[in-house]
Amino acid sequence: MRVKKLFGEFHCQWHGPGAETMDEQRLFPGGCCPWLYHSLYPYFLGILYGAKFDYNEQGDCHVGCPAAKGIDAVVMKRANDGTFDPRIGPDMGFVIFAEVVGRHGDCPYGNEVGQRIIFPTSMSHHYSCPAAFNNLFPLLGLEPPSCIDRSRMRCPDWDNPIEFSVVAE
């Protein structure tokens, strides 16, 4: 799957001028599962704009992928101490990321406990605009991975285990 960026008369602040083709490496940061990334995006964005969640005193939040036996992550914002990724320059004062804290079944994308998924705002030259990804995700035509079972999907709040069944009628 490839996505080609096209421009009209406007300039994209994220990517700059001109057309560019993006593959999965540019769309999904750090090899993150697209379904997990789609679940993480609104929480990343909230923290970017000052949201404080109630997971702990630092305002972090817990977010899980939609698979009933999936990945649990904690989304957080921390001062950039230079240890997150060598592509993050010292001019970035903070980094927003998710740390995988639980894996309850097979993850076809290989997401593992301890993995950090960095919100691309601190590495815009390496990844696609996360807002564009979020907007395009439903249209990418991706086949759900084997861990996704429409009859058992869960709420993104893994600390509140509510499951859903999606039935096409």
Please summarize what this structure is:
Helices cover 15% and strands 21% of the residues. It has 169 residues and is an alpha+beta fold. It has one domain.
Number of strands: 8
What can be said about the biggest beta sheet? 4 strands, antiparallel
Which percent range fits the helix content?
Answer: 10-25%
Low-confidence stretches: none
The rounded Rg comes to 16 Å
Terminal CA distance reads 29 Å
Overall domain count: 1
Strand order across the biggest sheet? 3-4-5-6
Question: What series of H and E elements makes up the topology?
Answer: EEHHEEEEHEE
The outline comes out as globular
Q: Give the helix tally.
A: 3
Instruction: Tell me what portion of residues adopts beta-strand conformation.
Output: 15-25%
Which structural class matches the secondary elements? alpha+beta
